[in-house]
UniProtKB/TrEMBL annotation:
The chain crosses the membrane at residues 20-44, 56-78, 84-105, 117-141, 147-165, 271-291, 298-318, 324-345, 366-388, 394-412. GO terms for cellular component: sarcolemma. This is Solute carrier family 2, facilitated glucose transporter member 5. The keyword Coiled coil applies. It catalyses: D-fructose(out) = D-fructose(in). InterPro entries: GLUT (IPR045263), MFS_dom (IPR020846), MFS_sugar_transport-like (IPR005828), MFS_trans_sf (IPR036259), Sugar/inositol_transpt (IPR003663), Sugar_transporter_CS (IPR005829). GO terms for molecular function: D-glucose transmembrane transporter activity; fructose transmembrane transporter activity. It is a multi-pass membrane protein.
Length: 440
């Protein structure tokens, strides 16, 4: 793609692009995605609360298709600005989806399957990454002629959603508690449960509606200032910071160097990356089946615990690699275990916790807060980790050890188990747990 930037610039100006200017354009291409994600997050709460979860997801496909068309056409019209702008547009799409998809799934799923249903969304994110990496190989579409086609393929899931999503109901909780439409809420609930008798769940939703009368239409500012919600909000911020600042995005800077140090040919590195992405899907599948039995807290603690240990071991192995040749194999092993640990809990579970720790009218604002942390952290990680790596070399993983360990300690102390509970029950569990922790 950088070659396309250079060729387009040369065609316009009859000179090759300056390396500094090329890096500036490439930096815009990279950073516009999290910036778009942040914009999408800011749009998600008001749109989800005013238009409905289903409707905003339907409209969101417009951003995906638009970005795909812009990316596909850029080479034909010799305009690299379209690529840069498309990154902003697809970022907006991702920002809305990251907030609204788990929110919608959490609200339509039964409480005994809620965790699994929400993690299924993360499974398909991992599956999308795998497909993109596989299609991006040089033998497929990762070529000078193939990359516009590869970028256009992002429109296919959006087109499927445009066709299929209208057949699905709106969130029954949204209809009852935020629109006051009990009749359509009952019809929607009957549709997703595939049975006529849904009175027990309707009564549970009425109880939640009565409980949150003081929290109706709570904005993010109101959520921040609400004393009864501050610890839940802090928990969201800590989990999202831990997720992103210990993220799989950070290890990609070292992954290629580690693979090459084991003797792997440079052309084969991408095949290893695809294999590890397939492993992430396998681990996420296991998480789907165990999250509602083992619980959310156990998976979070296990994941952050594994990542903490691997950060220490990676720092040691990378430091010794220059003097002990076979240590590179241990570096690769620790890297893979790190990915497994992150896929167990830190990657998929925080969105489940955000859904469950807040009642209906404050849930969209909670997702907004969590996703702001997500996208800002992603931006900072992309921009700052390279400088940390250059300054600290292998010891940069000690920074991530501190992040993982701090997140582990907070979850161990302050975050209760919420599996197989209604939202009303979870509110009481969280309040009692936090009160108990603060009294100690």
């Amino acid at each position: 793609m950088q070659e396309f930037y250079n060729q387009t610039y040369h065609k316009r100006n009859n000179i090759n692009i300056d390396k500094g200017l090329l890096m500036f354009f490439w930096g815009l291409t990279v950073t516009f995605f999290p910036i778009g994600g942040l914009i999408g997050t800011l749009l998600a709460r008001p749109l989800a609360d005013h238009c409905g979860r289903k409707n905003i997801l339907l409209v969101n496909n417009f951003f995906s298709v638009t970005a795909a068309v812009l990316s596909c056409c850029c080479k034909a019209v010799h305009c690299y600005e379209l690529v840069i702008f498309s990154r902003l547009v697809i970022g907006i799409c991702a920002g809305i989806a990251c907030s609204v998809v788990p929110m919608y799934l959490g609200e339509v799923s039964p409480h005994n399957l809620r965790g699994a249903v929400i993690v299924v969304a993360h499974f398909f994110i991992a599956f999308g990454v795998l497909v993109a990496q596989a299609l991006g190989l040089h033998v497929v579409l990762g070529t000078r002629k193939g990359w516009p086609v590869l970028l256009f393929l992002t429109s296919i899931p959006a087109l499927f959603q445009i066709l299929l999503l209208p057949q699905f109901p709106e969130s029954p909780r949204y209809l009852l508690m935020q629109k006051g439409d009990e009749e359509n809420a009952r019809k929607a609930l009957q549709m997703v449960r595939q049975r006529e008798d849904v009175e027990e769940e309707m009564e549970e939703m009425r109880m939640e509606d009565n409980m949150e009368q003081t929290e109706k239409r709570m904005s993010m500012c109101s959520l921040v200032l609400c004393q009864s919600q501050q610890w839940q909000l802090l928990s969201v911020i800590v989990m999202m910071l831990g997720q992103q600042l210990s993220s799989l995005n950070t290890i990609r800077y070292y992954a290629e160097v580690i693979y090459l140090s084991t003797g792997v040919q440079e052309d084969n590195v991408r095949y290893i990356t695809v294999t590890i992405s397939a492993m992430v899907i396998f681990i996420t599948t296991i998480t789907i089946f165990v999250i509602d039995s083992s619980g959310r807290r156990v998976l979070l603690l296990t994941g952050f615990g594994i990542c903490s240990v691997c950060c220490i071991l990676l720092a040691m192995a990378l430091e010794l690699q220059s003097t002990i040749a076979w240590m590179s194999y241990f570096s690769t092993a620790f890297l893979i275990i790190y990915v497994i640990g992150h896929s167990i809990g830190p990657s998929p579970v925080p969105s489940v916790m955000i859904t469950e720790m807040f009642l209906q009218s404050s849930r969209a604002s909670a997702f907004m807060a969590g996703e702001i942390v997500h996208w800002v952290s992603l931006f900072l990680t992309d921009m700052l980790f390279l400088h940390i790596k250059i300054g600290a070399e292998s010891y940069s993983f000690l920074v991530f050890f501190l992040i993982c360990m701090s997140t582990y300690a907070y979850i161990f102390k302050m975050v209760p188990e919420t599996k197989k509970k209604t939202f009303v029950e979870i509110r009481k569990i969280v309040k009692d747990h936090i009160d108990g922790c603060l009294r100690k």
